[in-house]
Amino acid sequence: MDVYLKPNFQSGPILFCLCPQEVETEQYYTFFLESLKGRGYDGYFCPKSRAKLVSEQERKHVDGCAVFFKTQKFTLVQKHTVEFNQVAMANSEGSEVMLNRVMTKDNIGVAVLLEVNRDLFSGGENRPVLLTEKQLLLVANAHMHWDPEYSDVKLIQTMMFLSELKSIAERACSSLTSDPSAIPIVLCADLNSLPDSGVVEYLSNGGVAENHKDFKELRYNECLTNFNCNGKNGNSDGSITHSFQLKSAYDSSLMPYTNYTYDFKGVIDYIFFSRTHMSVLGLLGPLDNHWLMDNNIIGCPHPHIPSDHFSLLAQLEL
After folding, report:
1. Three-class DSSP category at 199
2. Which is catalytic among the residues 63, 106, 190, 214?
């Protein structure tokens, strides 16, 4: 997934980040990082948690998530990895389903806190704009569990990730404000969840009911409050909420599918952004359906299309 960010008073080149999932460890270091460094990028990568448990040879083929960013346009402030199994263990509160269903999955998320370089900002005819504070940006990338039978795990992994992002933002802006939403966020993810899922409802609406059907009536109640934006002892009002005001870059009608296989076609990949700080200027649309049919492409990977996931690209104004 690619993200362009353009400050609304900038007349120079746009800012650029890439957020791929399912990148094999060896491919990251020998191909992606080397190739993109030659084009002015740096990156941060972490493999899935099982990489710690396998041999060095096997570790090369464990996939993970990465974030690449233009070093001319961003300065790296912090980098973070969120291992969902570790967060689940720390917040299980004695819940057997949390330990048996969530902790056993090795999915991860990564986040980089970036400072937008000041010399990129200009005020008409390339006159510099004086910024009184650092312009920070939090870019996050995650890959949630795949199995359709584990909608509860996907929803909890998403809650854990946003809870950790909230902590990152709070620590980063503690000297300026106590409001973590003061730092714009861009969240790219393979959520493995359809637009009508609890995961997308949670991200889009700012919360989801504690008894949402995607929890499958399993006993998560005690540990879910740990991820509420009001804290464990706050008023939950029967919902688990987050403090980021997020919006999907893609309208639900634009992309008929982001994952295109022989036996499944649907939207499961997303770009979310802080709607209070950014707006969408442009999007990469879907592949032409007539072209797919004319070439008899009924599933991917395919010689013409190397991945079963189609690329998302958003141009955002900051």
Report:
1. helix
2. 190
